[in-house]
Amino acid sequence: MRLNSVRDLEVLREQINEKRKSIRKRIRICGGPGCHSGGGAHLREAFQKLLDDKGVSQEYQVVETGCHGFCARGPIVVIEPANIFYERVKDDRVPEIFEKTVLGDELVDDLLYVFPETGEKIVRERDIPFYAGQERIIFNDTGLNWSTEIDDYISRGGYSALAKVLAGMKPLEVIEEVKLSGLRGRGGGGFPAGVKWESCSKAHGDIKYVICNADEGDPGAYMDRALLEGNPHQVIEGMIIGAYAIGAKEGYIYCRYEYPVAVKNGLRALEQAKNYGLLGENILGTPFGVDIFITRGAGAFVCGESTALMASLEGKIGEPRGKHIHTVEKGLWHRPSNLNNVETWASVPQIINNGGKWFASIGTERSKGTKIFSVVGKINNPGLVEVAMGTPLRKIVYDIGGGIPGGKAFKAVQTGGPSGGCVPESLIDLAVDFEKLKQAGSMMGSGGMIILDEDTCMVDVARYFLTFLVQESCGKCVPCRVGVKRMYEIVDRMCSGLAVPSDIDELERLGSTMQEAALCGLGKSAPNPVLSTLQYFRHEYEAHVNDKCCPAKVCKPLIHYEIDTEKCTGCGVCRRKCPESAIIGEKRECHCIDDELCVRCGICIESCKFGAIFIE
Amino acid sequence: MEYNIEDVDAIINQWGPTPASLLQIMLDINHRYHYLPRESMQRVSERLKMPISQVYGVANFFKVFSLTPRGRYVMHVCTGTACHVKGGPKIIERLQSELNLMPGETSEDLMFTLETVNCVGACAAAPVVVVGETTYSEVTPSKVTSVVKALKEEV
Question: What ipTM was reported for this prediction?
């Protein structure tokens, strides 16, 4: 069916909502990456089978949605309309939920969320402190949305922003609205989106492109994956509006190869939008038309950089170029191209619907709106969190994130991936926005927040990012290609106990040279993980260099495994399990470890029932 | 799977024989054979009218492509930041000793390939290992040992 006018869209929306009224309850299964891998892959089929067997699939509906964000408690099942939230649901619990809560109105008590501090059981999804502390705007619908059905998106008001634009806004008015909102690019740079759109719309050329950067290479961040998988139409609608404002006739979504479900759902969404006439020629019966395609990347971090991404789209090696000519003037195939990140595009429909002024009322002076963070690592509630810009780090880590597991101490949070840095515990009250993170020596990046506890070695973290960058440097410019390699060698020496005192100064010198001389943004920011850890955790570097010890007991060459003579019972389990035969001792007598043979693999610690083996 | 020129041509036709389709064509070929057979690269170069050096340039640049055959089970160990701080390196070590392979290597019987991947976007479930379409979440060294054992028995 093709929609030939704005009116057609409204009629369709009414029809869908009318049909909805016959559905008594809806079972939402989270299809996000956390829930799916955590055992939720077959929940939908299991519920559907029960519905079919009972012959009630007209009254009850089971849908697979996008990510709910509360990945710590997955697999998640929510039953509408009361929004009863069940956590850690396994396949064998499906019949019970079906009988009690779907057909009946009883609760399955032991699947409810228990608030750890009070022991109180919470029934409704939004009453859980993890959700209650957030301000969900862009990421609100992902957990509600039947990720593969356009009708579901339309039923919640989808494509109404596009209709509003096509029914009565001039391209310049759209740009003004986005400028007014103060929306800044969510991919890392934080460049004002409206200004970028304006430059691209003013650039000379008949053919222009809109591009969605879904090459989310920043390790530890997955909000773009969740958005594109869970609510692809929100991104597509944003792109169509952008294309209208700029005057583009073609658009590309460049998605990572590592996200096959995002590609699949995106392709399906594009096809559905085309069938409704929301893509292609004469959208909603107006003269405006645009087509959008999905292209897969092939595993190169550097392709997240705009010029490298465009080179890759052209079928070339994904190497960046100098940006003396901006891509809004000469980008893809030397034509004006406007590239924004997934989350940026997904923000556009809301801005159009509610007005730029509304969006600008959220957030801080220079960082407007909300931001989705992927709060992961050593945290009790790992998942995706959307908060207003300027929310204190403490609130994100403790109130929403639930604090650090095992009673360990919070040490730092790594933000901005390989281009960012570490914010230490002393800055826990930092109001997180673009400026504050930059002042703290880190950056917003795409919104990854990896929480580190006292057991994390900061020198090892720096080495981790350098390993990553050595692999991912495209090799075009010398400062990055050779610079990260030399920095890696120095930090690796530190972790191996072979460093010399001048190494710390050498690292700083190399880092500042790279910041000055590298070609692209990724190269210029590559030394950040080292420089920011040096800024706040210099004492850890000094311990590695001068004392040859690793305070967090992580770097293998600097630690020893030992056996507590009080606790060892001489059971011999560790001796038998040790792959290097490094443990010796008579039966029922205290064992000991041959340090020369020990490779510090940790198998003995894992197998000891008495906790007798420790790291020194 | 045996190399077959018709299959490669079908892939090329699906995307259209233009340089802009190069990456998509190579991804599909790589997916089909688990690597890029030499003959397929020659065919792509002919059909797209591109120098073979350029085709190989792209094949070498991107991490997904392999120029040598890979195993039936490719064990992708995630090395994203969240996986790293939650014990990812121990998972790689254990798989190295279980499979007797270094990352990037394939066993002689073409059963297993050990690969690392810089983040698969399942960070809340860290550390993760992806084999085919299955993602194993919150893995421990002993859990990967049993995964490898189960895969060996499947054969």
Answer: 0.93
